[in-house]
Design a protein that fits this description.
2 copies of one chain form a homodimer. By secondary structure, the first copy, chain A, is of the alpha/beta class. Chain A has 12 helices and 12 strands. In chain A, the strands form 3 sheets. The first copy, chain A, has a 6-stranded parallel sheet, with helices on both faces. In chain A, strands 7-6-8-9 form a 4-stranded parallel sheet, sandwiched between helices. The first copy, chain A, has a two-stranded antiparallel sheet with strand order 10-12. In chain A, strand 6, helix 9 and strand 7 form a beta-alpha-beta unit. The longest helix of chain A is centred in the N-terminal third of the chain and has 16 residues. Chain A is elongated. The mean pLDDT of chain A is 94. At the A-B interface, helix 4, strand 1, helix 5, strand 2 and helix 6 of A face helix 4, strand 1, helix 5, strand 2 and helix 6 of B. The structure holds a DNA duplex.
Chain lengths: 341, 341
DNA sequence: ACTACCTTTTAAACCGGTTTAAATCCCGGC
DNA sequence: GCCGGGATTTAAACCGGTTTAAAAGGTAGT
């Protein structure tokens, strides 16, 4: 038995045909007699031949890979509960197609642009996922310039040549606010994510709109930054107000759990003195004390859908429609209750 | 201006030399007159030429990429605070070498082996990082069979043909235990990670050994599974003991934070009634209430070192030495204090 | 002036596929 | 018995680099 893996030429000679025929048979191209196709596939099978990715890459000018660039503040290279499940979802699609996922974790700033440029210049990927979409996201123009297909995770505000995969955060946020209103809260504050992010402002506006629709005076919205440290800061500022809120809605679980800590450190009891809600339903949300009321989406399916959508584009479709996922659901736990009398 | 990117032939004709010479110049091969090299490099520069990865891949049979397979229990696709920083560290090495990182997140079981096989069969990577090393890890034999270079993150117990990158968890764990002993604790319990993992048992044995060295009777070691849910369970069992511990050392922060919640849910005050310590210094550790005493390593540097080590192997070195990183450091916060009188 | 021997450069093969243009087969029709 | 034409099949070019073997150029020795 030879150690080298068989090439298309080996298959061809074993089947008694030319390289070209093997290629045709493999790719299901018409014009070959069925008998010949069978003979070739049998030979390929016996030899255990799989076409070389590298050779195919060169001749068809494709990478057979998709890319994901995750931008993180250098100070907090912490993990977002979203990504592992999202990536697993992406993977579930790529595996069956023989594609790979190329990942870059870059620090915010010029590294980010360099990351995309490198992916494009080196021909590493056939398309990329645009996560953590920002308002007037400069990456959209960048990718157009680089001629790199993409899908945006969320709907960009400007016009975009790329399909969007959308998971609307607003219904979930509204559900949280309505839940608090039903409990009797009227002094509800919000700790938002950085307003540069589309999903952060979506949550913020849903917060404000839902209160407005209920005719309740909106309280302070504090700018957070999705980090635990930012959550603490924002919470302290809110609790220091002359008339502090009786409930705080955070734009993600990290800030909410940190806020929970801050409230407890300030001597408050949650939920008796203060109700707290998050967003994401991260693993810890269920297990902190009290359990965190939050909103659960389905990042696995998000990844799956994003991969399917991006692949349509990569496969040459020109009019790929946006994909919309079912919105996130409210998960009620112990951190929310009626306001103090 | 042409839209197509220049090829080596364009550079060759512009410099008035053959393709071969351009290749030699690019790769700094001896045998070319210095003047010729300069001329070629100048021409390449003017054209903005970069050699095609795909063509190089095919002719030199290398992928110019490294792989990381992260295995996660399908139920908890949660994020480990270790990986983002680890990956960023890896990236810092790969970027300058023009390499890419191929990531797979697979669920535990047969998916895992399939993942490595696919990476190898498709020639996606030149080497892989073996993370979450297990005792008698079957992946070592698998990678030998696949003829895929690797580095193990941690020292395997059996003999391994691969270099190891080691960050000793024992000093950190010992430091935690000693810290608790100094505070006066004598009833110290441990919530371990799954004993299949090398780093989990390293922490467990360090726990037991340090207590033994101090002549203190070791208390129960509960088996956890590194998840928050497991942390809760183990904590409940410990607190239900006839003589419950006054301090619990957890093998990671996720379990510790969940344990903190369980203790508080049981009506205990941390640290007055119970001291709690974690391992990892994840982002939330500082911000839960009380702040979590834990152990901090440097995953960025871990990634960096692992990438450098793996690349030595990939570059053909045969006797790559193991690399040892400075051990993790104790970080004392509010969750530990003297035991109740 | 001729040979010997380096140094420098090049032509061509090669990596392993895909694709195009042309060759070959096979059959019915006249 | 020969021709036309669709169905199959193949040879060869191509993707863009690397590498090897041989050619070309230069210098020195005699």
């Amino acid at each position: 038995m030879s150690k080298e893996r068989p090439t298309i030429a080996d298959v061809a000679s074993r089947a008694g045909v030319s390289k070209g025929s093997v290629s045709f048979a493999l790719n299901g191209r018409p014009g070959l007699a069925q008998a010949t196709v069978d003979k070739i596939l049998a030979a390929a099978d016996e030899l255990g031949w799989r076409p070389s990715n590298r050779a195919r890459s060169l001749s068809v000018s494709k990478a057979f890979a998709l890319g994901l660039v995750i931008t993180r503040d250098p100070a907090v290279l912490s993990s977002d509960p979203f990504f592992p499940a999202f990536i697993a979802g992406v993977e579930s699609v790529l595996a069956s197609r023989g594609q790979a996922l190329v990942l870059q974790v870059v620090t915010a700033g010029e590294d980010e642009e360099a990351g995309y440029r490198r992916l494009a210049r080196d021909g590493r990927v056939d398309g990329v996922f645009l996560s953590d979409l920002r308002h007037d996201d400069p990456r959209i123009d960048l990718l157009v310039e680089l001629n790199l297909p993409a899908v945006t995770l969320n709907r960009p505000d400007g016009s975009s040549p790329f399909p969007a995969v959308i998971l609307d955060d607003r219904p979930g946020t509204s559900a949280v606010v309505e839940h608090l209103l039903e409990l009797g809260h009227t002094r509800i504050a919000h700790v938002a994510g950085p307003p540069t992010f589309v999903h952060a402002t979506a949550r913020s506006t849903a917060f404000v709109d839902t209160l407005a629709a209920a005719g309740v005076e909106p309280m302070a919205t504090e700018a957070g930054d999705f980090t635990a440290a930012g959550g603490i800061e924002a919470t302290r500022r809110l609790l220091a107000l002359p008339k502090p809120p009786t409930a705080i809605v955070y734009a993600n679980d990290r800030m909410a759990i940190a806020g929970l800590g801050a409230a407890q450190a300030a001597g408050l009891t949650v939920p008796d003195d203060l109700s707290i809600a998050g967003f994401d339903d991260s693993e810890l949300a269920e297990y902190v004390h009290p359990g965190l009321t939050t909103v659960r989406a389905d990042p696995f399916r998000f990844g799956e859908t994003a991969a399917l959508t991006l692949n349509q584009l990569v496969d040459g479709a020109t009019d790929v429609p946006d994909a919309e996922l079912p919105p996130a659901q409210l998960v009620v736990r112990g951190s929310t209750a009626s306001p103090p009398a």
